[in-house]
Amino acid sequence: MEKKNSLFFRYMKYWYGIYGPLDEYKRSEVERIGNNAFFIVSLPMNFVMILAIVVSNLQIAYKTTLAYIIMLFGWFILELTADSYILHQLKKFKLQIYEVENSQVKNVKKKIWTTSWISGLFFGVLMTAVSNVITHQDLTSFYTLFEFLLLTAVMALANGFERTRHIKLVEDED
């Protein structure tokens, strides 16, 4: 009997760019990669938070801004490290290859581009909202619209081109 995928596991497969069913070995590898990535981010982040707390309690000028910058760069570096680890492991175990028959290529590419634009839209909305909260920009300004469109397009195009690269054609079984 096939094990039903949890919502979290489907989420991991989506963001890792893994398509189709996984056998037991590949499933355990995906879970191991996810667990290791969690520890790559969470354990060092504790030290970054402690450093930011210590800096915010020092008697220096701009201590809050400095603590914020430490948290921001710490999170950024740890996320890049985790993403690099995940991509390396997925490539090593060949988990991102999407095997499709010749007759299904058009539908698969359409599905990939649709999910890429949805991801890009989500990314554009989220990053524009965060940027506007931090910079106190007007949500109706031309700059905000340009930022939203640029972020959405760049993320969607990068995501779509990257995912379509992993399509592998297999012979029809007819």
Description:
- The protein has 174 residues and is mainly α.
- Helix 2 packs antiparallel against helix 3 and helix 4 (105-135) packs antiparallel against helix 5 (142-164).
- The mean pLDDT is 86.
- The two termini are 27 Å apart.
- It contains five helices and two strands; from the N terminus they run αααβααβ.
- The protein folds into two domains: 1-96, no CATH class; 97-174, no CATH class.
- The protein has helices spanning 7-16, 24-56, 63-92, 105-135, 142-164, and strands at residues 98-101, 167-170.
- The protein has a two-stranded parallel ribbon.
- Keywords: Membrane, Transmembrane, Transmembrane helix.
- The chain crosses the membrane at residues 37-60, 66-87, 112-134, 140-158.
Order of strands across the widest beta sheet? 1-2
Q: List the helices and strands in order.
A: HHHEHHE
Can you count the beta strands?
2
Count of helical regions: 5
Q: What is the total number of structural domains?
A: 2
The major beta sheet can be summarized as:
2 strands, parallel
Provide the gyration radius in Å: 20 Å
Assign the structural class, choosing from mainly alpha, mainly beta, alpha/beta, alpha+beta, or little secondary structure.
Answer: mainly alpha
Question: What is the percent of helical residues?
Answer: over 70%
Average pLDDT for all residues = 86
Distance between the termini: 27 Å
Low-confidence blocks of residues? none
- Measured by DSSP, the beta-strand proportion falls in under 5%
Q: Looking at the structure, what is the overall shape?
A: flat
